[in-house]
Design goal:
The complex is a heterodimer of chains A (about 600) and B (about 675).
Chain A: H1 15-18, E1 19-21, H2 22-29, H3 33-43, E2 61-63, H4 64-71, H5 74-94, H6 98-106, H7 114-120, H8 124-129, H9 131-143, H10 154-173, E3 177-182, E4 187-193, E5 196-202, H11 217-241, H12 252-256, H13 260-275, H14 277-293, H15 299-306, H16 328-333, H17 336-343, E6 349-352, H18 358-367, E7 371-374, E8 390-392, E9 406-408, H19 410-419, H20 444-447, H21 452-464, H22 480-491, H23 493-524, H24 529-564, H25 567-605
Parallel strand pairs in A: 6-7, 6-8, 8-9
Antiparallel strand pairs in A: 1-2, 3-4, 4-5
Chain B: H1 3-19, H2 26-38, H3 41-49, H4 53-56, E1 76-79, E2 85-87, H5 94-103, E3 110-113, E4 118-121, H6 124-134, H7 176-191, H8 249-255, H9 283-296, H10 309-312, E5 328-334, E6 340-345, E7 351-356, E8 360-365, E9 371-376, E10 381-386, E11 394-399, E12 402-407, H11 413-422, E13 442-446, E14 451-455, E15 462-465, E16 471-475, E17 484-488, E18 493-496, E19 505-510, E20 516-521, E21 524-529, E22 534-540, E23 546-551, E24 557-562, E25 566-571, E26 580-583, E27 589-594, E28 600-605, E29 610-616, E30 626-633, E31 644-649, E32 656-660, E33 664-669
Antiparallel strand pairs in B: 1-2, 3-4, 5-33, 6-7, 7-8, 8-9, 10-11, 11-12, 12-14, 13-14, 15-16, 16-17, 17-18, 19-20, 20-21, 21-22, 23-24, 24-25, 25-26, 27-28, 28-29, 29-30, 31-32, 32-33
Classes of the chains: A alpha/beta (about 600), B alpha+beta (about 675).
């Protein structure tokens, strides 16, 4: 009798009934594989892992309920219609009837995904929780060139660009950005919206490299389709939560200059001001005076730019537009973190040089309460503006220097943001190699290794908070020593017990030995140097002999309790030990490299 | 004709063409005239009509646009218009040409035309043209490339129309056919036959999550498992990481030797400024792979156990509280030349006997390490065992197929006499076939050693005394159904155990207080009641191969050592499964032992160590025995892959004797 014998008339049970393989599912749904793939991406259906794989190990299994869920999806019917319709177009084309083909094309059935979004994310928080991949993808497509070959349409890219800017504008506006990190792969941002940490990656603003054949753009485009809709609805929700209209109407001139973000921030201001015109009037006029004094943008230009927003704003308010309006009402709702972030670059005015990464900095600096301008058309103020406090420069030398401002490399901004304090600018001056840029996503303590610069930042933070330093009144060079001690302390934490025990045992032995020596010396009544030497040497040898023994004893002691463990627990314990060792090995490599580097530096100096 | 003219003419003609007025030089005109006269007028016609300047003046050579190397080896360079060969001219030799350049300052203006095989001198005018061309300007200085366009056609105020035909009537009256068509369309629209295209609907946005409170509506599908978030970047992915994160060149090279899976996928690199970061090649690929993971990877909810490994360790009582136990080597008994296979301690604890592979049996004084007596048995000694009675210091020794019962010569005169009596076998008894007596063992008097020799039919591996000192059991692993025998010393007879053996017997022990007998085979331990002659219990060890067994002096607990280094503690009241399995040795366990009075037990193994445990058995049946590992005793050296062969506790003191394959016996004291 075969193992899985099922009498006739008896239903399937268990995993055999609950799970079907992909090919079974495709057959069941009566679609082809690409449609199935698209449907499962749109609906967010994924394979599941049955406890028992009835059909074998090399299949992917879908839950029957998931497949039933797909089967009742109206999109399935629409996809079939689309397929039939495509055949019509093809037929018209092959009959050399382009009129009909074109007319058919204009009437092709289409579908919307809002219902699916609602279905997949019944709550807003659910949608935010899954936003990481969405944002990364949309930001990637915003940076990609349109490509006919891969069916990447211009419209799609523009839409992605718009959505990503809208998202950034919201984050920047509400000061929800928390961490930034420049990696080789791109720039990581982490924001906190409604308690959800959302991390996304934007590629560097460069020509993107298209990979070869191993990327199937159909899959990616399907994902982008969902993500676009999702992000649009999320943006809508977020914009409405701060009483701003969505979709935003942008100044086409600024849009053309590719400074969408700035345009969006102006839109925000306009909207916000519209709602709270009266209480803000006095403060606005004050700042207005200040800013009109400075040589801002010529009035005719500003008028042009304001043409779109005229129904909301008086036209002769050039500088005040850029100013972020402080919403007093919001203050209570904001949490501690947001307030801290908002104040970071307060009263600082930045100017970006041509080569600095404009998009990223235009996003970050306002998010932390700073005011920023750039070199180029449509900028709110020029380089010559006297009130600029920091100019961000990414070139080896700076020609003309205004004494009133500090010239820093862009990394300074990122490091300040991560440290949440204004770092001293000396290390980031033009022409210097900046200090290492550290990832804010790493828990140094858990990792077991704290880079030197992280320690420095920690101390600076403590200083900023006016906390008592471990070593007050010492120079910066002495700063390193306690760090090192601390680092070593952490590294050695595991070995601490062993070392202590070893030390104690050694001490006991030494004492014993010394006593014996004393007795011997007293008894023999002579103490020549030679004999002492001999004794000491013998002592050394003994110490050396006893050392492995002691290690053995320590190890035995450690293993003592593992002997009594149950097999399961022992396995768990051993796995933990292995992973611990692996981590320790990594740390050891880093420590070793650090030591070598330092030695090399020292020898280089000498 | 001169080539000077040709070049000039060609350029001029081109220029003139541009302007649109033909205004040729008189020199060229004359040339043309000559050609026309000599050749057909048709050719001339063609020349005049052509746009190309090259066709304008026919070259002397007529070979056309063919590679000149075809004529390289010929005496002629081609053919003239009449079809006659044009002879090659004598070339100046190099020296002459060099001299010519040296002499004539204008020689650099001469260009050799190898098509026509002649030297052409560039005129001043032509030189200017060339200079202008090199600068990218129009060749003639007076040519204005941005001249206003002159429209030669007069568009308005013409006296006469272009066409003389009268305006047709259809220009003045509405079209009948058109109106008919319109009516038709209108009718069709009214009837709904023609539908208009609705304007493409843009995606409308609306508050999708306005009623967040209605989340109570249950999703009618399976629980959604959110995909795990992508890994966040560490310090090493920074564009400007700390120096220690950057591997050296040697390390990078060593990555090549690794397996592809182990190789780090990302090698940190340092860029000194933000703008020097190059485009990352795998941006799209990374995100595509993430997409694949999102829709192709099976998702499972997994419980990740996040416990401190230290908390997994059971709380053990402090070792100090469990003292005394053997911990340090106190004495060594040296004298054997081969591996010491077995040791045994006399009941009073004053003497220790040892048997070695070199065929000797020694008796040592425990406290001094003095060797009292040596028997040379001749064969490798497998096992030695003292009689457990103090007044009968008899030593049982298994050597090869024999078991020797030796008089150790200890004890006072009376005892000696008793022993002598005991160890006297009268005339070799004729094997009695009645009962369980086995003919395969013969009791012989051994005169050499003054004892009894029990000759077995197979090699005896183990000898074990009954607590009363009258019976002893021997195990012959190869003995099949007669593998385990019980000998009675007082009656000098041998009997087979009345039970069927399941598998190869490894060891057999008597119960310390009751008439129960333990036989361990390779997988199981069977417990028999000797009086009622039946099986009481079968202990499933679950081990691969049992090597030794020891019974707790209380009699309810058994420890079993195995060849895979595991020690099982059986609580026979609890179950037939091991109460606890201790993986205490990396190699075979050779022997296990219980202390008779202290709550101690020990195992010794081929890894040259002995492990001492604390094992309290409580009289309260509800309380499980307490097993605590105490110490690892080292000191023996390995020889031939064997380590410690035997371990025994002192009967009264918490001391442990170990016999090593390195022919040393060690005493460990507390």
């Amino acid at each position: 009798m075969p193992k899985h014998y099922r009498p006739a008339g008896k239903k399937k049970e268990g995993n055999a009934a609950k799970y079907i393989t992909r090919s079974q599912a495709v057959k069941h749904l009566q679609v082809n594989l690409p449609v199935f793939r698209k449907l499962s991406i749109l609906k967010g259906i994924f394979p599941r892992e049955p406890k028992k794989k009835v059909k074998g190990n090399h299949h992917t299994y879908y839950h029957v309920k998931d497949i039933a869920f797909l089967q009742h999806e109206p999109l399935l019917e629409i996809f079939r219609d689309i397929r039939a319709y495509e055949k019509k177009i093809k037929k018209a084309e092959s009959k050399k009837n382009p009129d009909l083909a074109n007319r058919l094309r204009t009437r092709a059935p289409s579908y919307k995904l809002d219902r699916i979004i609602r279905e997949r994310y019944p709550k807003f928080v659910d949608a935010l929780r899954d936003l990481d991949d969405c944002l990364t993808m949309v930001h990637l497509f915003a940076a990609l060139p349109a490509l006919e070959r891969e069916k990447i349409a211009v419209k799609r890219i523009h839409n992605c660009r718009r959505l990503s800017h809208e998202w950034q504008a919201y984050i920047s506006r509400t000061h929800k950005l928390r961490k930034v990190f420049i990696s080789v792969k791109g720039i990581y941002y982490q924001a906190e919206v409604e308690g959800q940490k959302i991390t996304w990656l934007t590629p560097h603003a460069l020509q993107q490299v298209f990979p070869g054949d191993d990327v199937d753009f159909n899959v990616m485009l399907t994902f982008v389709e969902v993500y676009e809709t999702l992000l649009a609805f999320i943006n809508y929700h977020l914009y409405h939560s701060i009483d701003v209209k969505y979709p935003p109407i942008l100044d086409p001139r600024l849009e053309a200059l590719a400074s969408d973000l700035y345009a969006l921030s102006r839109y925000f201001d306009a909207n916000a001001k519209h709602s709270v015109v009266n209480p803000e009037a006095s403060s606005v006029s004050g700042s207005e005076q200040v800013e009109t004094q400075q040589k801002g943008i010529p009035p005719d230009e500003s008028e042009l730019r304001l043409a779109q927003l005229q129904h909301q704003l008086p036209s002769n308010e050039p500088g005040a537009l850029m100013r972020l309006v402080e919403d007093v009402a919001d203050e209570d709702e904001e949490d501690e973190d947001t307030r801290e972030c908002k104040k970071l670059f307060k009263n600082m005015k930045f100017f970006l040089s041509r080569e600095a990464p404009r998009e990223s900095l235009l996003f970050i600096i306002p998010a932390f309460g700073g005011i920023v301008s750039w070199e180029g058309e449509g900028a709110p103020y020029k380089e010559a503006d006297q009130s600029v406090t920091h100019q961000i420069v990414d070139r080896p030398t700076q020609g003309h220097i205004f004494l009133s401002r500090e010239y820093v490399q862009p990394q300074w901004v990122y490091d300040c943001v991560n440290a949440r304090i204004i770092l001293p600018t000396e290390d980031y001056m033009v022409g210097r190699v900046p200090p290492p840029h550290l990832s804010p996503f790493v828990d140094n303590e858990a990792e077991g290794y704290i880079p030197e610069y992280a320690e420095t930042i920690k101390r600076l933070k403590a200083l900023a908070r006016n906390e008592v330093l471990p070593l007050p009144g010492e120079g910066t060079e002495d700063l390193e020593d306690p760090h090192k001690l601390l680092v070593e302390g952490i590294i050695d934490r595991a070995e601490a017990n062993e070392a202590a025990e070893r030390k104690r045992k050694m001490l006991i032995e030494q004492n014993q030995y010394l006593n014996e020596l004393k007795l011997e010396v007293d008894g023999v009544q002579y103490s020549s140097i030679a004999s002492e030497n001999k004794q000491s040497s013998s002592k050394e040898t003994e110490a050396r002999e006893s050392e492995p023994d002691l290690q053995q004893i320590v190890q035995d002691h450690a293993n003592r309790s593992t002997v009594v463990m149950s097999r399961r627990k022992r396995g768990l314990y051993e796995a933990a030990q292995i992973s611990k060792k692996r981590r320790q090995d990594k740390v050891d490599v880093l420590v070793e490299r650090n030591r070598k580097n330092k030695e090399a530096q020292k020898s280089g100096k000498n | 004709m001169s080539n000077e003219v040709l070049g000039k003419d060609s350029i001029e003609v081109e220029f003139n063409d541009n302007v649109g007025v033909v205004n040729s030089d008189d020199g060229s005109e004359s040339d043309h005239a000559q050609e026309c006269q000599s050749d057909s007028s048709e050719l001339h016609q063609g020349v005049e009509e052509s746009d190309s300047s090259e066709d304008e003046v026919t070259p002397r050579n007529t070979i056309g646009d063919v590679p000149l190397k075809w004529y390289q080896d010929e005496a002629h360079i081609g053919y003239d218009l009449a079809g006659k060969k044009i002879k090659k001219k004598e070339r100046q030799d190099k020296l002459d040409s060099f001299l010519a350049t040296a002499d004539d300052s204008k020689n650099w203006l001469k260009v050799y035309d190898d098509y026509n095989d002649e030297e052409v001198e560039v005129t001043r005018q032509e030189l200017k043209l060339v200079c202008r061309l090199l600068k990218g300007k129009a060749p003639h200085a007076d040519f204005d490339p941005y001249a206003p366009y002159v429209d030669w056609f007069k568009w308005d105020d013409a006296k006469h129309p272009l066409s003389n035909a009268p305006e047709p009537k259809r220009r003045f009256i509405p079209s009948k056919w058109e109106s008919k068509k319109v009516v038709k369309l209108v009718r069709a629209i009214r009837m709904g036959l023609i539908k208009f295209d609705k304007p493409k609907e843009e995606q409308r946005f609306y508050p999708l999550w306005r009623d967040d409170s209605s989340s109570t509506e249950k999703a009618n599908h399976l629980a959604y498992i959110p995909a795990p978030k992508a890994k966040l970047p560490g310090h090493e992915e920074s564009y400007n990481p700390s120096l220690e994160y950057i591997p050296t060149q040697e390390e990078i090279n060593s990555y090549q030797l690794m397996y592809e899976e182990d190789r780090p996928k990302f090698i940190p690199k340092r860029y000194t400024s933000l703008k020097s970061i190059p485009a990352y090649d795998n941006v799209v690929k990374d995100i595509f792979e993430r997409c694949l993971d999102l829709y192709l990877c099976p998702r499972v909810r997994k419980k990740r156990i996040n416990v401190d490994p230290e908390s997994l360790k059971p709380k053990l009582p402090c070792r100090r509280d469990l003292k005394p136990y053997p911990a340090t080597c106190y004495l060594e008994y040296k004298g054997h030349k081969g591996a010491v296979m077995s040791i045994s301690i006399e009941a009073s604890g004053q003497w220790i006997a040892s048997g070695s592979l070199d065929g000797t049996v020694c008796i040592w004084e425990v406290e001094t390490g003095r060797c009292l007596r040596v028997w040379v048995v001749g064969e490798a000694v497998q096992c030695v065992a003292w009689n457990p009675l103090c007044e009968l210091p008899i030593l049982a020794v298994s050597a090869g197929q024999d078991v020797l019962l030796l008089d150790t010569g200890l004890g006072d005169g009376e005892e000696q006499k008793m022993i002598k009596d005991f160890l006297h076998v009268g005339t070799a008894k004729a094997p009695d076939d009645s009962g369980n007596k086995v003919s395969t063992v013969s009791w012989l008097q051994d005169d050499k050693h003054e004892g009894i020799r029990l000759r077995h039919f197979k090699t005896v591996s183990l000898v074990e005394w009954h607590r009363k000192g009258d019976y002893l059991s021997t195990v012959m692993p190869a003995g099949e159904s007669r593998a385990v025998l019980i000998h009675q010393l007082s009656k000098k007879h041998t009997q087979r155990i009345p039970f069927k053996l399941h598998g190869l017997p490894v060891s057999a022990v008597f119960h310390p207080t009751r008439s129960i007998f333990f036989i361990s085979t390779k997988k199981t331990v069977r417990v028999y009641d000797l009086r009622e002659q039946k099986l009481i219990k079968k202990l499933e060890t679950g081990l691969r191969e049992v090597s030794s067994i020891a019974v707790h002096p209380g009699g309810d607990n058994v420890i079993v050592g195995s060849r895979e280094g595991k020690l099982c503690w059986f609580d026979m009241d609890l179950s037939s499964q091991p109460y606890r399995i201790l993986k205490c040795h990396p190699k075979d366990i050779t022997n296990v032992a219980f202390h008779r009075t202290y709550p101690l037990f020990a195992s010794c193994s081929d890894d040259c160590t002995a492990y001492v445990f604390h094992g309290t058995v409580y009289s309260d049946l509800n309380q499980n025995p307490l097993v605590v590992p105490l110490d690892i005793l080292r000191g023996h050296a390995s020889s031939n892959g064997r380590g410690v062969m035997d371990c025994k506790f002192h009967p009264k003191q918490p001391w442990l004797f170990t016999a090593g394959a390195d022919s040393v016996i060690k005493l460990y004291c507390h």
